[in-house]
Amino acid sequence: MDFREHQDRAKRNSRIIWFLYILLLSISSLLIGWTFIVGLNLAELYQSGYEQYSFGQKFSASNSHAFDSEQIQILLSFSAIAFIVQASTTAFGFFKKSDGHKVAVAFNARLLDENSANSLAEKQALNIVTEQALAASVPTPSLYLIPEQGINAFAAGKSNKNAIVAITEGALNSFNRTELSGVIAHEIGHIVNQDIKLNIQISAFVFGFTALFFLARFIFYNAMYNRRMDGRAKLVMFAMAAVIAIIGALTVWMGRILQAAMSRQREYLADASAVQFTRYPDGLVQAFEVLENGGKSTKMENPSSKEYAHAMMFGIGGELFATHPPLRERIARIQNQK
């Protein structure tokens, strides 16, 4: 397998998707600025003295006026504020999800070390983590065992120094040493390629778009309980809130599509890295075949699994929101069939 070629391809595709995220944030901010300025212009035109004009005429005039030299700066100011609000929410989401140990605790996972490893399989898993970290030239991550029978694993943390690897009891019990080495090497590949930090950033980015829902709700309630505002002006404010909520829904929806696309590319990259560290492609292929041919489930019952689906080694989703490529396609890439 030409894993370096696959690494380069996955990195290139990830850069494109990351650019699309920035573009989506910028477009949504500009749309929010436009909504505000057009809404304020409409509210002004609904005061007394403009009754002879239809809604279409008022909307057209408000939209044209928004791009006049007098108001373009106000439009850009509103857009900048929307950008800052979404960026601030993104930053909050990043710091909230940056501690890998807390993520593991959210799954009720148990930290494994020399003293807490109760079985030969657990001690073997600890040895594999040490071996693969050494092969990848990174600090040995902490290993957590998740009390789930579904076969899955993930890596988390904001840097190589405080990274963790978590595997389910189902994975520990279903894979032999060679297969488990491939799975753990895959997760360490995520650490080496800084996917653990990227996963947090992407998740926080989508979380940042939800700020638009709070903004829409603020405008709605402010208009509803403002007794000094004219009834027609209130309708305009309600319409503004609805438009902002729609923009929020669309950006979150598109953001999740990009999140899934980014995740699929990083999975290919981690697969290639696992081959690089183990020097044995069949180990990871055999692990995939256990799932594909053995009827094993990757489903996890913990509610946190949905939020961190993009970080899992094996995911569940539809065509648009599938966070992982099909197993057969991953096997084909490893075996250099495509």
TrEMBL record:
One record GO biological process: proteolysis
InterPro entries named in the record: HtpX_protease, Peptidase_M48
Every Peptidase M48 domain range: 127-336
Single GO molecular function: metalloendopeptidase activity
Keywords, sorted A to Z: Cell membrane, Hydrolase, Membrane, Metal-binding, Metalloprotease, Protease, Transmembrane, Transmembrane helix, Zinc
Transmembrane portions of the chain: 16-37, 72-95, 202-223, 235-258
Essential cofactor(s): Zn(2+)
Record-linked Pfam families: Peptidase_M48
Lineage top rank: taxon: Bacteria
Cofactor details (free text): Binds 1 zinc ion per subunit.
Family membership noted in the UniProt record: Belongs to the peptidase M48 family.
Protein name (database record): Peptidase M48, Ste24p
